[in-house]
């Protein structure tokens, strides 16, 4: 991950939640290649592409001297959204990271308990309100004292990731890093 100094992804969370680091592998621009990659992953069931991006991202982060983590946790989808989509693109990205680093990916410890509408066309405030009490940690003991890498597909306002960080920290995580496939400026 990029050094937190002058890192726009880290800056999203500065003063909101305690993070060790945060970063995005790609920049999302309308009409750009990243948009096409994300649509391929998210809407065209290209799980292999998400895993591959995770592997490449892991190699890049390793070359930058990223600090180790004990566990990778993808932002979960609600079971209804998972059924619609067929797979969790954040989990596939996490699988690529985990395979390259030989770090376990845990999909059971953070649960999305409430179905929410897409965040795509919501304001910053609406996004935050949409996810503020949506996630729960199922096993505080497994989190206690652990260094966690929280993974998502895209970060825009950071509302979803912030909600997840709060839950994981309350459950006892030692520290949390964030890595996303892409960063989309509002």
Record the SSE blueprint.
Elements: H1 8-13, E1 21-28, H2 33-43, H3 47-63, E2 71-74, H4 79-85, H5 89-101, E3 110-112, H6 124-131, E4 135-137, H7 140-143, E5 147-155, H8 159-170, E6 175-184
Parallel strand pairs: 1-6, 2-5, 5-6
Antiparallel strand pairs: 3-4
Helix pairs in contact: 2-3, 3-5
Structural features, described:
This protein is an alpha/beta fold and 186 residues long. It has one domain: 3-Layer(aba) Sandwich (Rossmann fold), CATH 3.40.50.2020. Helices cover 42% and strands 20% of the residues. The protein has a four-stranded parallel sheet with strand order 1-6-5-2, with helices on both faces.
Counting DSSP H or I runs of 4 or more residues, the number of helices is: 8
The share of residues in helices is 40-55%
CATH C-level category? Alpha Beta
Separation of the first and last Cα atoms: 21 Å
What does the largest sheet look like?
4 strands, parallel
How would you summarize what this structure contains?
By secondary structure, the protein is α/β, with parallel strands linked by helices. It is about 40% helix and about 20% strand. The chain has one domain: Rossmann fold, CATH 3.40.50.
List keywords for this structure.
186 residues, alpha/beta, Rossmann fold, two-stranded antiparallel ribbon, 8 helices
């Amino acid at each position: 991950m990029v050094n937190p100094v002058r890192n726009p992804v880290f800056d999203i969370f500065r003063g909101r939640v305690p993070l060790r680091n945060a970063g995005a592998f790609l920049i999302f621009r309308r009409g750009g290649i990243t948009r096409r990659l994300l649509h391929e992953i998210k809407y065209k069931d290209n799980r292999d592409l998400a895993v591959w991006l995770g592997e490449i991202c892991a190699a890049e982060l390793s070359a930058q001297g990223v600090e180790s983590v004990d566990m990778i946790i993808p932002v979960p989808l609600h079971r209804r959204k998972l059924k619609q989509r067929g797979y969790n693109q954040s989990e596939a990205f996490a699988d690529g990271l985990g395979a390259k680093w030989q770090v376990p990916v845990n999909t059971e410890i953070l649960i999305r308990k409430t179905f929410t509408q897409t965040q795509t066309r919501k304001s910053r405030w609406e996004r935050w309100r949409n996810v503020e009490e949506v996630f729960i940690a199922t096993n505080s003991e497994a989190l206690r004292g652990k260094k966690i890498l929280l993974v998502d597909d895209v970060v825009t306002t950071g509302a979803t990731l912030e909600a997840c960080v709060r839950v994981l920290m309350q459950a006892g995580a030692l520290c949390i890093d964030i890595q996303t496939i892409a960063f989309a400026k509002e």
